[in-house]
Amino acid sequence: MTASTPPAPEFRDPRLPFAKRVDDLLARLTLDEKTAFLHQFAPAVERLGVAAFRTGQEALHGVAWMGPATVFPQAVGLGATWNEELVRRVGEAVSREARAMHARDERVGLNVWSPTVNLLRHPLWGRNEEGYSEDPRLTSAIATAYTRGLRGGHPTYWRTAPVLKHWLAHNNETDRDTSSASVRPRVLHEYDLRAFRETVEAGAVAGVMPAYNLVNGRPNHVSPYLDRQLRTWTRDDLLVCSDAGAPSNLVDSEHYFDTHEEATAAALRAGVDSFTDHGTDSSRIVARVRGALEQGLLTEADVDTAVRRQLSVRFRLGEFDPEHDPHAVTAAEDVAAAFDTPAHRELAREAAEQAVVLLKNDGVLPLAPDARIAVVGLLADECKLDWYSGTLIHRSTPLEGVYERFGAERVSFAEGVDRVRLRTAAGTFLHVLPSDGAADRAAGTEGALDPALLAGRTDLPPLTTDATGTELALVDWGEGLLTLRAPDGRYLSVAEDGYVRASADQPGGWVVQETFRLEPHGDGHLLRHTGTGGHVRVAADGVKVAAPGASSTASSAASPAADAPEVFELVVTERGEDAVARAAAGADVVVVVAGNDPHINGRETEDRTTLRLPAHQQRLLRAACAANPETVLALTSAYPYAVDAEALPAVLWTAHGGQAAGTALARVLAGDVSPAGRLPQTWYADDADLPGLLDYDVIGSRQTYLYFEGTPLFPFGHGLSYASFAYADLSARVEAGRVSVSFTVTNTGDVTADEVPQLYVRAEDPSVPRPRRELLAHRRITLAPGATADVSFDVPSSALAFWDVAPDRWRLEPGPYALLVGASCEDVRLSATVTLDGEPTAPRPVRERGLAAVGFDEQSGTEIVDLTKTAGDAVTPVAGRTGELLYRACDFGAGVSGVTVSVAGEGTVEITLDGGPAPVVLSPDKPTPGPYAYTELRAALAAEGVHDLRIGLRGSLRLAHVGFSG
Length: 966
Description:
Blueprint: H1 18-28, H2 31-36, E1 41-42, E2 53-54, E3 57-58, H3 75-81, H4 84-104, E4 112-116, H5 136-151, E5 163-167, E6 180-181, H6 185-201, E7 207-210, E8 214-215, E9 218-219, H7 225-228, E10 239-240, H8 246-252, H9 260-270, H10 283-294, H11 300-316, H12 332-338, H13 342-354, E11 357-361, E12 373-376, H14 398-406, E13 411-414, E14 418-423, E15 429-431, E16 464-466, E17 472-476, E18 482-485, E19 491-494, E20 500-504, E21 516-521, E22 524-529, E23 536-539, E24 542-545, E25 567-574, H15 576-585, E26 589-595, H16 615-627, E27 631-636, E28 650-654, H17 661-670, H18 704-707, E29 725-735, E30 738-747, E31 753-755, E32 758-763, E33 774-778, E34 781-783, E35 788-796, E36 802-804, E37 809-811, E38 815-822, E39 828-836, H19 846-849, E40 851-852, E41 858-860, E42 862-866, E43 873-877, E44 883-891, E45 896-904, E46 907-913, E47 920-922, E48 935-943, E49 946-955, E50 958-965
Parallel strand pairs: 3-4, 4-5, 5-7, 6-8, 7-10, 12-13, 12-26, 26-27, 27-28
Antiparallel strand pairs: 1-2, 8-9, 11-28, 14-17, 14-25, 15-16, 17-18, 19-20, 21-22, 22-25, 23-24, 29-30, 30-35, 31-34, 32-33, 32-38, 36-37, 38-39, 40-50, 41-44, 42-43, 44-49, 45-48, 45-50, 46-47, 46-49
Helix pairs in contact: 1-11, 4-5, 4-12, 4-13, 5-6, 8-9, 9-10, 13-17, 14-17, 15-16
């Protein structure tokens, strides 16, 4: 007899629904196997033929960290295109390359951690480059397009599985793992949650990543909103992946839990499914989960819930159905057909062109074809990458683009670096030895899973000293942070052995090793290396970094003379502005290319401190303008600047545009492409216009174009064109719960160009503060000269609702609403008013429901904190201040005679009714045992009818609720 072949397990049967197959596989896994799946690097289960799986592959604007890939414009640049279809195609290209790279190298993951949908609330945020916009609807529209491209169009199988970053209300790098964002309910629902919600509801999102910070006193990795909000927006299983190291932060830096077992259990129960911690070493996370199980903090069912979500994503990616996966790439020719294709190169150029924003133009642009052009500035011959870029296959700088477009014979160039020598106390100079025989090595070609693990080069000779030295190119990137570059183009850097070498192609890395500071010391300067904190010294075997704290004047037992830092004299051989002035004077027009290096002064882990252009670049701009008034400023940056635009005939902005940045900019300058990018965030005129970096109350502190009442340098949605456009024939109507708007746009210019009509709304008679205007819809259209387009938008009336804190839900307020159509939030061309039916404003029924402390209408001097470690909010005074809360239109009905407050901590609560009796003051007799140990305090309070109620808070008191009786 021949033994029959056992039937394939159900999880291998593609005819069955995914949910049934996931349940079958889950039932076959042991508890130890399931526990191991909770780490980012899930091991293989060989007995079942289940492969290893890695969550997380960075793909913000191209596949990152894994070697050569197509590099598209930064995310903020994609946001500036205001073009969802373009961004969808970019997402599709990125996902195709991810699949091809995965086929070649299994370390390339298909669970992509992208896009970032954090709103660009504050322009000094170091990670501004990663977001799309300050507006939640524009952010959601662009993010939805990108995720649809990443997902692919197949109804069953996904090309990649995108995870949105970073849940929730995350806009600061300063103290990012310990700071708490105080987010009132209206801001939470109308602003921060909205971008996530509308993207998830669109159906192309596999999960989210919680942010490092806390919201309302509670770490995002134990956020109750993961279950109470996120997972109610879709019927799909969503995979929540922790940010790197964040699970350990719950104990180590945030001190929110006493033990890692408690923290891991709390995060898992809150909804975190995959723990990114300790790199590829899963042993500590596994041990913590096992400990939590043994202590009864977790059950196997908790583990099953998380593993089920991971398996759901893996099934959708086709892992268990390779023969049915339409996205599978297997043959070498298929890899070549999906990777660095002509179509992807063309798309990178198109995206870079559409991202260019013309901020001002007095007629100098486009440039005349026979113009003599000086291209100057620190970024004129640069194609900068950021932390989440892949390795460039192709490269185009602004200078190269202008050379190619206008001819090298018509173009002059001056970088504008300061050329310097560094003289030692002994009279010798720092000298860079030739690097003959050392092979070039492009960063990222090793395919490191984490580029922070890439070590500096030690195969090149350290710097020495000699009588003449080497002339170095010095750039001050702002606030005294310098780079020094050798004549061969390599930047001075410090490797793990402490020696200073000319070894880096560009500044970069998690800890940048290519930046220095010159610190005045006596008649000279100390040269401090910022990566290590040590000063540079000259030793017999080469130039190296001294141990931090070493003396610069005398030797001692603790700091021998051999380890003393060197005192340098800075000898300037040429000022950058002199070279710029020479080039500018001989040209018909000057293009100053200024901006930032994405690894310096404003990046992940580091916020900016000012909107101002760094002083070195201001010097170059002034020199160019003085030598030639026909000076165009081309800003290439990850964020807005405050510049003196009045003195310039033309200003453009583009984010770092990826591999085709230079070609795109040159084509816009030449008029081959009419610029049509639009600002995705407000450009403020001055630092004084900005709120505090940690002030997340966009309503109370009047932030973003939604509420800002000042005059911006350039408004949200702004962008000029080489054409002109006429808007006409506005029609607006309300029917069947929808608002329909139509109008025409005509190209009245003489070139084909894109225009971006924008529809805004403003509540004309609101009962609470509402946005000055709020984007409802937009569309990017292309029009030939004289052509007219009919544009129509149809939005549900519910899109005009606000979060009413009284009933704690969305409410559409009846009354008039202005519909504003134009080319930016300030450039309104057409307007109409419609009247909507809705739910009238009603007083708060406080006699029956009381008041949740967090449901205030206005506040000053308070912050929101966690009611308990698992859920709920309370309000407390900011340390050292008196907190004030206002609750409008409280209805006490026929009357109340008493008040009860639920408080924890120590301090006083003062309750006042407008037009009522003297304040009621309540205070606990002694401090409660802890911040979550609430007690109820009672006092007499007589009130009837409708009154505004004010509460004053003093001390370290947490107020949770106010009730009324009698």
